[in-house]
Amino acid sequence: MSDDNPHSSRGSAGKTWLERIASIFSAEPQDISDLEDIISEAASRELIDSDTKSMLQGVLDVSKMRARDIMVPRSQMATIDIEQPVSAFLPILLENNHSRYPVVNEDKDHVEGILLVKDLLQFALDPNQTDWHIKDFLRPAVIIPESKRVDALLKEFRQKRYHMAIVVDEYGGVSGLVTIEDILEQIVGEIEDEHDDEEDNDIKKMASRVFQVSALTPLDEFNESFNTQFDEEDADTIGGIVLHAFGHMPERGESIQLGDLTFKVSKANSRRLLQLQVIRAKESALTEDVGS
């Protein structure tokens, strides 16, 4: 009789589903790999969509991460020296477009505090106010070890309402920093804001020989546009080719020449290249209209 019931298989599957969830959460200790299997099965049954699956997987991944795994490394930290006048550090603010910056004394191992850009607005609006020093606006810097669990750090960010932490190694030297956005990006993916460059087009022509190129541009598309012959067996994207050529994760502003093209990193985070500036050594009729 049950075989003739069109709802019987669905009911059985639903029961199995609930039983599996119950068994996992009642087991001691709980096995994350079992949870990952449940999430994958839910996606395959279309109980959740791919975005939800990615976020759930991101939550599980965060539970296994330490601060060292997601921090912006020391070499890529944008900092302000406590003795710098406004004229010296203003270009840093404009170039990076962050909302807060570590303020250091002489070097990055001596962090004096955190500067919130919004605290300077009153002086930007009133140029007659000159009797002030950057140290008057410093907020306390939160210091955490590299081994700090990321999920615990996110909880502290929320409870204590701060958004940045300085990461130190076992000897007390600064090794990087972590923001609440860095953690959220592990869960929901890259977060773009109004300051991020538009990336709707993979290739944009900026000047006669200068192009803005997404690092995720498929290599075959890049080869066709620039009349290059990078081996598609070496990488799927132009970013992969550039990263391989550097031999390390480059910082913003680093450049390398490949053939008659110079690649300059214009946007990157601690994990991947995002945007490249490509400069041709000379004009080529074959690529005159690239990115137009």
UniProtKB/TrEMBL annotation:
Organism per entry: Arsukibacterium ikkense
GO cellular component, one term: plasma membrane
GO molecular function: flavin adenine dinucleotide binding
Domain of life: Bacteria
Listed name of the protein: Magnesium and cobalt efflux protein CorC
One Pfam family linked to the record: NMB0537_N
Lineage: Bacteria, Pseudomonadati, Pseudomonadota, Gammaproteobacteria, Chromatiales
Keywords: CBS domain, Cobalt, Magnesium, Repeat, Transport
Segments forming domain CBS: 71-130, 137-194
Role this protein plays: Plays a role in the transport of magnesium and cobalt ions.
Keyword Cell membrane: no
Record-linked InterPro entries: CBS_dom (IPR000644), CBS_dom_sf (IPR046342), CorC_N (IPR054115), FAD-bd_PCMH-like_sf (IPR036318), FAD-bd_PCMH_sub2 (IPR016169), Ion_transp-like_CBS (IPR044751), Transptr-assoc_dom (IPR005170)
Family that this chain belongs to: Belongs to the UPF0053 family.
